[in-house]
Amino acid sequence: MRARADLTGRLLRVLRQNLPRYVLGAVAVIAFIALWAFVSWYLQDTGSPKAIYVPSPARVADAFFGSFSLLPGLEEITMWDLISSSLGRVLLGYAIALVIGFPAGLLMGSYWSADALGRPILEMFRPIPPLAWVPVFVFVFGALWGPVGIVFLGAFFPILINVMFGVKSVDPSLVDAARTLGARRRDIFVKVTMPTTIPYLMTGLKVGIGIAWMCIVAAEAIGLRGGAGLGYYISLSSLQFGLWPQTYATMIVIGILSMVTTGLASLLEQRFYKWSGMK
Questions:
Q1: What fold is seen in the domain 56-276?
Q2: Structure pTM?
């Protein structure tokens, strides 16, 4: 009972502290929906042929809730199946990007030889949009690993570059002070380099997850034919069946998933700071 009361009190404190932010956010959402409804009504009222492409918020809401029990155009598949497929590809590609990008950033930030070795490859491939690789990845790696590879490319560079900059931003005076006190290389890495690098890593993780969702939607829309995925259904419902309410509903699902995964990354960041005593 006491633990429940403590949790309730903590939630109320967080709510009071962030109430102005929540109110402003709600106002922005309401204003956006009102503008959307007005544009839809105006196109319908004037008989514009473009009205079909801007369904009302009410129609999109109906399509959104209905999609979790039935998806027009796809037999025996619901929105849950699309979420499962796309989320699995995103998490797999994102995990690979983290496993490779984090140590690569540490190496390139710590050693000039690693930087000299990796910099030409980094500068050569970083400006190429990940979607430019979709045809290659899909034909070479197939419907599963092709989109996963596109997600990997999208998330890899933000993680790598932020970690690299984090290592390079370590104050040399702190390193010298640690050495003067007898700290070994491992101690310097754990107690000086890592606390400085972690905020940069967290920034890379949050930027990377947003890019990952953009990549998976485009990769599935372009690369999947007959496979399940949110991006594929956006392409199918709009271009093939003209089901624009379902298209918008799927876009809303993607936005919610992106917000949830970014929020989880922020929560992980706060937990780490609290655990390490940095905040």
A1: MetI-like fold (1.10.3720)
A2: 0.82
